[in-house]
Amino acid sequence: MPLLDAARAASSNASSSVSALPPKQQRPSRRSFLAAAGTWLAWLHTRSAWGLAPAASYNVRSFGALGDGATLDSDAINRAIAAASAAGGGWVDLPSGRYLCFTIHLRSHVTLRFAPGAVVIAATPDFSKPSRQYDLPEPQPDTVTPYQDYGHNHWHNSLFWGEDLEDVALTGDGELWGRGLQKGDGPAEEHPGAANKVIALKRCHNVLLRDITIRQAGHFGVLATAVDNLSIANLRIDTGRDGIDIDSCRNVHIHACTVNSPFDDAIVLKSSYSLGHIRPTEQVTISDCTITASYAVGSMLDDTYRPLLLGAAGGWPARVGRIKIGTETNGDIRNVVVTNCTLDACHGLAVISEDGGVVEDVLFSNITMRNMVGPPIFVRLGGRLRGPAPVAPGEIRRVSFQQIDCVSASSDDCSILAGFPGHPVKDIVVSSVRVQHQGPGKLRTDEIPEQVAAYPEPNMFGDTPAHGFYLRHAQHIELRNIVVEPGSPEPRPLLWIDDVRDARFDDVRCSDPDAAGVRGINAQEIFLNGKLIALTP
Prior knowledge:
Layout: H1 3-10, H2 30-49, E1 56-59, E2 68-72, H3 74-86, E3 90-94, E4 97-101, E5 104-105, E6 110-114, E7 118-122, H4 150-153, E8 158-163, E9 166-172, E10 175-177, H5 187-190, E11 197-210, E12 213-215, E13 220-233, E14 236-238, E15 242-247, E16 250-255, E17 258-260, E18 265-271, E19 281-287, E20 290-292, E21 321-329, E22 333-344, E23 349-353, E24 358-370, E25 377-381, E26 395-409, E27 415-418, E28 425-437, E29 469-486, E30 495-510, E31 518-528, E32 531-533
Helix pairs in contact: 1-2
């Protein structure tokens, strides 16, 4: 963030905008007052030296917003943002209230500050009245649209959107409620005047999203495409589809977010072709986040935590959640760290390349999981190859999973590391992992299909032939200090290996000695506790 905007952020508590303060602000001490005053004066001196006027705050009520939940306030909020932008930047304050809105346009050097009790509600469009609709989706050429779904191809059809911006922030204890948004239901989502995202950003840099709550977010809570220097901190997202999608971005930090997303991914990194060219996603950290898919949408936020009922998905896969890399991988994804996160009642960690991209240099560490409906770890290199020709298969390499504890996992699908013939996953290290699963699974005697071009989900192979790890089309694999504990007698071996070369298993244990075997076919250079072994089916 440039010095000017860092100074703005540092002095935000010293702003003269009374309407943005919490209603019970404590009186500051003399020391804190002097510190704030010093920061404020230094900032004024900096702006004066640069020939800039002091940034101002703009209360949306001064521009006609009523916040009564019935009157459309999007025009008033857009006027306040435009005024701040015309002045060279500033804060736009939304006091407590319920602001019914269609599309709100973000602008450079403008921070939106939501006071406690401020709720922006996505209005339900009236397609017979142009004034009661969202911005139309921007056109995309036919050379781009076939390679990702509709939601990734457009940004303007959103509650908030910004394109080609810098130094933008949405902060505060308010809520963004996507009540009138579509969640990705084909024709309804694509109807002109409809919207499907709460926040959409394209080709921006220096962006901060902090402390806000997102409820019922349509298709995406946050879609960031080609956004660099992006910080997302302390968001609470309770939604029916994707929580946070990071696509073709660089220098991204996602910290201390809580996401309940029963029917889709919670946090997902991608590198699609939506820009019309390939751009990698790189230098990403995801830390101290809580992911779940076990609650009815909205019940995490209202603190009732109602269990998700079977059949509630209405045709969507239920209890997805998860932290995922992929599936859209036309470009590369690299230099990623995921650490200190908890997952509950959802799928686990997924690393996927399907469309020619290279996924490399990824570390997962210090992860706890409970009540999982899918495998703790799913690594899949596939051959969907959805992109402009020619597209060659990608790679997955140098991925590590460390210090992972999973309790009460599903027994149908064990952890999977799988490529496809001629294209192995490589250099995967799994260490210090403990998995408790319910058991027993089903013993497989049939041939397992390759599913090269199928959509990558952990159940794509059916019940896995092992109850600990299933390795298929893999090279240079290390499993160290692994403990698997089935809850009942398990007929399957601990490890099943198919077309694997150079795998080393050290201190890999099972609580049931009868289910501790290592079996497989087409294996070379397999070492168990330092000794070369031969495998049998």
